[in-house]
Amino acid sequence: MTSRSTSRSGEGRPNLVLVTVDCMRRDRLSAYGYERQTTPFLDRLLERSLHCTSAHSPSCWTCPSVISLLSGLYPHHHGGGLVPGDPKNLSKQNLPTALPADVPLLPDLLAPHGYRSAAIGAVWNAHLSVPGRFERMSMIERPADRLVARAVRWIRDQDGPFFLWLHLGDAHEPLDVPRSLWNVFGPVPRTRGVRRWEFTKSGSAVGSKEFHRYREARIRLYDAAVRSADTSIGRLWSALADLRMQDRTVFAVTADHGEEFWEHREDERASFMDPRDIFGTGHGHGLFQVHVLVPLVLTGPRVPAGAVAANVSLVDVVPTALQALGLEAPSGDGWSLLESNHDWAGRAVLSEGIAYGHDKVTVIRGDAKLLSSPGDGYERTFGLGPDRRESGVLEDPKVTAELRRHLPGESRVGIQVEATREIEDHLRDLGYID
Ligand SMILES: [Zn+2]
Fold first, then answer.
1. pLDDT of residue 1
2. How far is the centre of ligand 1, averaged over its atoms, from the C-alpha of 59 (Å)?
């Protein structure tokens, strides 16, 4: 036997692999009951995983949400990825804030225990507010298989415990679907518009025959993008088996937020101001359940399999992952999903930090949801149905008063990122600025 000269203090601890699929809304996964087989790999993984049926993203767009995921703090507590001004309008004059340096992220929490860290992302703004926060950060704006290939090469080089964050962009505008999967759910025309968004403006002919044709093709291609991500996540999982690491890796799959396909267009047009005159599509503008419900699947040596029906949030990932690795978590906004002694039934989860329009916040507790946008003069309490979507307006002042108690106070705000040509080009390509 030879002993390794490069042994690190954390050797023997499990690894952590966190996969986020940008814009992957929960109800589009076959693993969560969708009729198209978008996620055959996750369908299988579910059998050995803890999976949450009411998981929420802390924001409806990438920058604040991924910071919450990596810090265990809500946006008003971490202050990163926030768009200044009122109404908000993400643009080159209004870039989001960088994460304040004193807010630790998972790589900072894991490094003292010997963990190396890498972030490999396909959506440029996933790294925008957290530059230099991982030992290695790579941006590969390509379909998932390319990122997974890079990730596997990095994993092979590790001789001790590691934390890999893989952020896939297949389902984010412009949809990036490999040729082999483009028509997997039926024919999709190869037009520029189908990879981006059309019928978005208040005056668009939504309801026309052309709209319905477009909508069907757009959703088919989105579903194919989810399938592409799922296939590649399956390859990563297989690679961990080949490297004999599968049984000593905590492996989590989620999304940074959902995506809207015109479900709330009329409510948005009637109630909310949008400086872009865009209603009903994409993300960043609203906090309905289509924007914030995400899948959350976790497996690992100390993680029991089974469904979790409680309201949970991506801020729970930090304490859960650390506990699964056998480490203490600092206090934050999240609760470990491995702990049953929390008051899960009384738990309130928040979502906030929008990019367009007046500031909005939502509080979800039990089967009730408060959606508040003071700048629009809007406050409504919804009931949530078994599918966790808004099922109707609740007229119960007691419920509304209880939800209001959980509204966040004053927000911390980091320093605004300064515009460069590179930042503008990337945000334009992603459809965030004109
Ligand atoms: Zn995103």
1. 38
2. 9
Enter the DSSP assignment of 208.
S
User: What token pair was written down for 256?
Assistant: 């940074």
Using one digit for the tens of pLDDT, what is the confidence trace for 51-84? 999 999 999 999 999 999 999 999 999 999 999 9
Tally of domains within the chain: 1
Extract the tokens encoding 162. 């590691």
Asked, for residue 331, whether it belongs to a domain, the answer is yes
| pLDDT of 309 | 97
State the chain's mean pLDDT as an integer: 95
Query: How far, in Å, is the centroid of ligand 1 from the Cα of 298?
Result: 20
| Cα–Cα distances in angstroms (integers) from residue 373 to residues 264, 352, 415, in the given order | 15, 10, 24
Q: What is the pLDDT of residue 293?
A: 98
CA 409, 314, 63, 290: dihedral to nearest 10 degrees?
A: -90
Distance (angstroms) between ligand 1 centre and the Cα of 129 equals 13
CATH number at residue 332: 3.40.720.10
In a domain, 434, yes or no: no
Partners of 51 in beta bridges:
297, 307
Provide the 3-class DSSP secondary structure of residue 275. coil
Q: Is residue 280 situated within a structural domain?
A: yes
**Confidence at residue 9, expressed as pLDDT on a 0 to 100 scale:** 59
Residue 10 belongs to some domain of the structure? no
> What domain range is 395 assigned to?
15-183+223-429
Q: How confident is the model at residue 5 (pLDDT cuts 50, 70, 90)?
A: very low
Question: How many whole angstroms from 159 Cα to the centroid of ligand 1?
Answer: 32
Distance from residue 332's CA to the centre of ligand 1 (Å): 22
pTM over 0.85: yes
Per-residue pLDDT, averaged over 346-367, amounts to 97
Tell me, in angstroms, the distance from the centre of ligand 1 to residue 66's CA. Answer: 8
H or E segment to which residue 238 belongs: helix 209-242
Centre of ligand 1 from the C-alpha of residue 61, in Å = 5
C-alpha of residue 128 to centroid of ligand 1, in Å: 12
CA–centroid distance, 4 to ligand 1, in Å, is 40
